[in-house]
From TrEMBL:
Keywords: GTP-binding, Hydrolase, Nucleotide-binding. Its EC number is 3.6.5.2. Gene3D superfamilies: P-loop containing nucleotide triphosphate hydrolases. It catalyses: GTP + H2O = GDP + phosphate + H(+). InterPro entries: P-loop_NTPase, Ras-related_GTPase, Small_GTPase. This is small monomeric GTPase. SUPFAM superfamilies: P-loop containing nucleoside triphosphate hydrolases (SSF52540).
Length: 134
């Protein structure tokens, strides 16, 4: 949902659980930037072997990890994923890998099970950016 919203500026209510690679041009600070986004649904990612996930990690320059504020399990898996990413990427170079944690479904605050503070603290403890969106 976040990827489609970023690419099209529209919200679509139903999404399949398929993996896609999108390309998108965007002007940032007067410079044209080409984004390649490898969008992987969490359920698919968890079902795959580590080698497929490692391939995606090596392909990417930065990471946006999304969890639902209404789903504790989607939040609880983040520390392990971030450690895996950092071990794979930062082990090769001295540069810090850009990672942002995004709490999604902020509009469903009445179903919230993960607090904003928990998200901020996790991001702080793992040296990541943090946002909540709907």
């Amino acid at each position: 949902a976040l990827t489609v919203r970023f690419l099209t500026r529209r919200f679509i209510g139903e999404y399949g659980a398929m993996e896609f690679i999108y390309s998108h041009n965007l002007t940032v600070d007067g410079r044209e930037i080409l984004f390649h986004i490898w969008d992987v649904p969490s359920s698919q990612e968890q079902a795959e072997e580590g080698s497929s996930e490692e391939k995606r990690i090596q392909w990417a320059d930065s990471f946006v990890l999304v969890y639902s504020i209404c789903d504790r399990a989607s939040f609880n898996i983040l520390p392990l994923k971030i450690q895996f990413i950092k071990a794979a990427k930062e082990g090769q170079s001295q540069e810090k890998v850009p990672i942002v944690i995004v709490g999604n479904k902020r509009d469903l605050h009445h179903q919230r099970v993960v607090s904003s503070e928990e998200g901020r603290l996790l991001a702080l403890s793992l040296d990541c950016g943090f946002y909540e969106v709907s």
